[in-house]
Amino acid sequence: MTLVLLTTPYVRVGGLGSELATNLPRRAAIGSAGVAFVVCAFGLGVFATASALATVYLLRRFMIAHLGGCTGDTLGATVEVVEAVILVTAASGL
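The chain above was modelled as a monomer; its predicted structure follows.
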């Protein structure tokens, strides 16, 4: 979710995620995304991390193409879809 907030315009003025998108401390968000990347790479493996990043990239492209950016609902969906991809990747043993 942090990567999407950092790289995608928020399109719903007054939406539930608008405060988060507007007041996101960028340096702290970049730091937390970096820590999450390292933890994921060491804890789950490179393939699961790459799968998660690819999923975020594809979801972001979809959001921009169809909505012009992200909303609170798409941020929540991103969390759930990426989590499912990581679980399936980890369960597959890759």
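The longest helix spans residues 46-67.
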